[in-house]
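pasting for the record
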Amino acid sequence: MDYTIRKALLHDRDSIQILIAESARGLSQDDYSPEQIELAISDVFGVDTALIVDGTYFVAEHAGELVGCGGWSKRRTLFGGDQYATRDTTELNPEKEAAKIRAFFIHPQWSRKGIARAILSRCEDEARSAGFRSVELMATLPGVKFYLACGYEKSRQIDQDMTGGVTLALVPMRKDLE
């Protein structure tokens, strides 16, 4: 494919936020209502600047445009952008805790072209190199099949509270790296 993967930079923030919204709106329609999608974009999904600063967030780029993004984290926060209220930036112990796979979004026109798999492979390799023995994530419903195909095991679905009593179904997933 005609794209490159690189570490995200702080000046990518606005483009990443646009990509996240386009991805959520374009790829979540079969699993979530329009209201859930819009509230997820405003309340939960978004850029996590800590990942960019840590150098663990990646973007896929084609002809100067972002077509995918995703990363991993050595910090406790499992999901949610900068606007998400429940955040814990404490560093994890790689010998006892799982690294976090975070914020994977692909532009709808670039889905199913191997971009997410390429970014995920890089994230898993880096987490393994940092001493982590496992990774975990919180999948959106559209992402569950992808992560299952990549060797992740799912737990029971949860409902994440959002504004106005609306909930968003999410699925905790985990994978051993050893």
